[in-house]
């Protein structure tokens, strides 16, 4: 059993800890937070059967009264209708403004449950229990919550910070290879924008079966995300926008392909390839460093070539509805060298178009 370690997310009165460890118990971890007795554990049809009973038992042993709410697994759960349905279940279960929420699952559940917590009784606390790589290294930290619409990803949402994040590497052993691997698109992104050494830390061995090494990788990613969030919680200075490296085109591809064809990390992998191309053209990223990132993506079985049946026109149409457009101008994150990045407003749609065509 590896020793648990905590990373602080320093946000003043809303500061919280991200605990990275193995076989973590939610009841004792949450008990000191002073939350109400009643809570809703929101999960999906994949994760609930694996971990729902254990989470409920731990909460009950600590004196809480949890109710389990399960939604269908998949990106379609991130919808206003599903959020409303979950809220209605919470109302029927008797949760009031003293209640709180547990998000038990991957990024979709974290976004949905966080959004529900943000709007229920105008906001109640929530705790993140992420069970995928992509959620543990990225989406569970930082307070972004939201749901999709038919016209774009995460267009409806709120900033609502969790009270605690429990990143349990033991839950990652149950992931199928594809779901495990997709999360490394976000790890590679963090390496590209902030810490090149991460790209070396994920090479060789079987990370899914090496909890100590995997926990160290997750902890480093959380440190990176935490520092950026603390510097720019609400995306007002531009610092937090660095986390969007690869996401502008990636979200466009995800939307154009129809949610479900690509896992989120797979779409982001393609977006990273376009961002590398633009970084080479606009910021001087070397071919050697671009190839290093591509090699890491391919090592985790992530796509680096866009299929011909996804038209550039449809991707661009989806891309222009993205939140990273401001008054019609695109903010694009570029990397001049691995470990560094900046936000540019000098990237044109013609250049984005050429970058998309270049990864076919």
Oligomeric composition of the shown chains: single chain
Number of strands: 13
Percent helix, as a range, is 40-55%
Range of strand content? 15-25%
Strand order of the largest sheet: 1-2-9-6-5-3-4
> CATH H level of the largest domain: which superfamily?
Dehydroquinate synthase-like - alpha domain
Individual helix count: 14
Largest β-sheet summary: 7 strands, mixed
- Termini Cα gap: 45 Å
Shape: globular
CATH class group of the largest domain = Mainly Alpha
CATH topology of the largest domain: Dehydroquinate synthase-like, alpha domain
Low-confidence stretches: none
Could you give the order of the helices and strands? Answer: EEHEHEHEHEHEEEHHHHHHHHEEEEH
Structural class: alpha/beta
Explain the overall architecture.
With 360 residues, this protein is α/β, with parallel strands linked by helices. The protein folds into two domains: 5-173, 3-Layer(aba) Sandwich (Rossmann fold), CATH 3.40.50.1970; 189-358, Dehydroquinate synthase-like - alpha domain (Dehydroquinate synthase-like, alpha domain, Up-down Bundle). Helix content is 43%, strand content 18%. The protein has helices at residues 26-30, 48-61, 80-92, 107-119, 133-139, 177-182, 184-193, 197-201, 211-231, 247-257, 264-283, 287-299, 312-319, 349-358; strands at residues 5-9, 16-21, 38-44, 65-71, 100-105, 126-130, 144-149, 152-159, 164-168, 325-326, 329-330, 332-334, 342-344. The chain has a seven-stranded mixed beta sheet with strand order 1-2-9-6-5-3-4, with helices on both faces. Helix 5 packs parallel to helix 7 (184-193). The chain is globular, with a radius of gyration of 20 Å. It starts with a strand and ends with a helix. The mean pLDDT is 95.
């Amino acid at each position: 059993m590896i020793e648990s370690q905590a990373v602080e997310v320093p946000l003043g009165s809303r500061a919280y800890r991200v605990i990275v460890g193995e076989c973590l118990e939610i009841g004792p971890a949450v008990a000191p937070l002073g939350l109400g007795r009643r809570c809703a554990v929101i999960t999906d049809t994949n994760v609930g059967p694996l971990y729902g009973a254990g989470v409920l038992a731990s909460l009950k042993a600590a004196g809480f009264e949890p109710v389990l709410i399960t939604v269908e697994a998949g990106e379609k759960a991130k919808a206003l209708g599903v959020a409303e349905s979950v809220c209605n279940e919470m109302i029927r279960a008797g949760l009031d403004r003293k209640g709180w929420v547990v998000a038990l699952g991957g990024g979709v559940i974290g976004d949905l449950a966080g959004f529900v917590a943000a709007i229920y009784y105008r906001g109640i606390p929530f705790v993140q229990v992420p069970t995928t790589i992509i959620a543990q290294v990225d989406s569970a930290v930082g307070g972004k919550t939201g749901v999709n619409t038919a016209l774009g990803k995460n267009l409806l949402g709120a900033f609502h910070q969790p009270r605690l994040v429990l990143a349990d590497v033991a839950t990652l052993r149950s992931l199928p290879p594809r779901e495990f691997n997709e999360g490394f698109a976000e790890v590679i992104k963090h390496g590209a924008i902030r810490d090149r050494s991460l790209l070396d830390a994920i090479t060789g061995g079987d990370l899914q079966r090496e909890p100590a090494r995997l926990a160290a990788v997750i902890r480093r990613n959380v440190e990176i995300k935490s520092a950026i969030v603390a510097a720019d919680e609400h995306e007002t200075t531009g610092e937090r926008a660095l986390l969007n490296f690869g996401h502008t085109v990636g979200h466009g591809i995800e939307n154009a392909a129809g949610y479900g064809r690509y896992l989120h990390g797979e779409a982001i992998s393609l977006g990273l390839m376009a961002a590398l191309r633009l970084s080479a053209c606009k910021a001087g990223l070397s071919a050697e460093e671009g190839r290093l990132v591509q090699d890491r993506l391919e090592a985790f079985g992530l796509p680096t070539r866009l299929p011909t049946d996804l038209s550039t026109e449809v991707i661009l149409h989806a891309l222009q509805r993205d939140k990273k457009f401001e008054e019609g101008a695109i903010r694009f994150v570029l990397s001049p060298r691995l470990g560094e990045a900046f936000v540019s407003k000098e990237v044109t749609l013609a250049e984005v178009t050429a970058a998309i065509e270049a990864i076919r």
